[in-house]
Design brief:
The chain is of the alpha+beta class and 83 residues long. Helix content is 13%, strand content 22%.
Amino acid sequence: MSEQKDRVYAPGMSWRQPNDAAPDFIKAKVGINVEEFTAFLKENEKKDGWVNFEMKESQDGRYYFELDTWVPKAKEEEDDVPF
């Protein structure tokens, strides 16, 4: 059973398809409002200094970025390790 999580989208970040005259290797144009995005990054920075995003595809085929909130589970120490 998967856990339901709240989705977090970055404010101040948008993207769009490049125009038809753009070369094939340009897949998207991303715009960032520096003030909004910087505040968001500072609020969501992990201890190691990173903020991670997942690029996803919606049901209607559009792409979007979502904050990656995954945190690995802490390893449990076993008391009776045989070595």
